[in-house]
Amino acid sequence: MANLKIILRKNMKKKEGRIPLALRISQNYKTNYVWREQSVFEKDWDDVSGKIKRLIRILRS
Hints:
This protein has one helix at about 55-60; strands spanning about 5-10, 20-25, 30-40, 45, 50. By secondary structure, the protein is mainly β.
């Protein structure tokens, strides 16, 4: 069974300060990433729940 988690790739910060989102897929001790076209500011990301705090701002940009 595969584990899925949306993560923030902080090591790939863009010039405007946004950080890209990736879908991490782990199965049989192997990990792959699927890159999403969305990116968020670090202040809009909730580390505890792994979700975006301010979804409206993301949808407008």
